[in-house]
Structures are given as C-alpha cells and as structure tokens.
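Quick question, first post here. What does this chain look like in 3D?
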Amino acid sequence: MKILIAYFSYSGNTEEVAQLIEKKVQQEGISVDKYEIGFGIMPNIEAYDIVFLGTFTWDYGSTPSEVKDFIADIGYKPERMAIFGSGDTQFGGEELFCQAVEKLVHFYASKWDGLKVEQSPRGSQEQIVNEWIEGVLQDVAVTA
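> Answer (accepted):
Ran it through. Tokens below.
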C-alpha cells in the first residue's frame, strides 16, 4: 500500500496533523509520501492507494484557494480520499468550525468522516487523530 499526505497550512496546525498521520502510517510499515500543497512538483495522485488531504478552514468557513487549485489540478475525484483539517471555533463558532473539511468530505463523497481538529492536535486531540487514522487504515486494509 502507498499513501500520500497532501496538506496546506499557514499557522502550522494542519501541518502538525499531517506529521502525526505520517508518523502513525510509518509505524504501521506503510509507504508514505508527504506533499505540502503549493510547494514542489505536484504528485501523481494515481500512484497512491489512498490520499489524506489536509486543509485549514478560514474566512468564516472557507476552503483556501490553494487547496481548491490543488483539487482542480488533480482533474478527477479519486475514490479514496480521507479529509482532515484544523479550525478555530472563535471564528464563526461550532456552525462554521472546520467547514472546509466538511465541504471536501462531501465533494469527494468520502467514505470516512472528516477529521476536525481545534487549532493544534496536541494533548487530548492527539488521541482523536490516532483513532481516526487507525479507522481509515483498518478500513483500507479490509477492502484492499
């Protein structure tokens, strides 16, 4: 199995989640590549069994334009997209919290719930991240 973690981060929170995913996937002995959206050569999405796509939510529920451009560059909707991201309830409250994640889960009709992290994944949220990753990996292993 080969996994791609593609993410976009301004504050570093989404990047921290991407790093946790990378660490967990590597611990499982799975090949993983990481791509920071907007930097370097666009990866060939078709070469991966699953893509973890990470974004933050900003501007009261919006998906960053860089993430939208990445999606447009893919040119199709890969079947196995697991969406994660960070947000901040102080900007729009629970109603708009991590709406970019929700929008992408819906867009890709992802079979997995999106992972939503309040700011940084440190502390108790790290366990939530690990449980989400385990669920995705277990489901992929069963259907592979």
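The chain has one domain: 2-143.
The chain has a mean pLDDT of 88.
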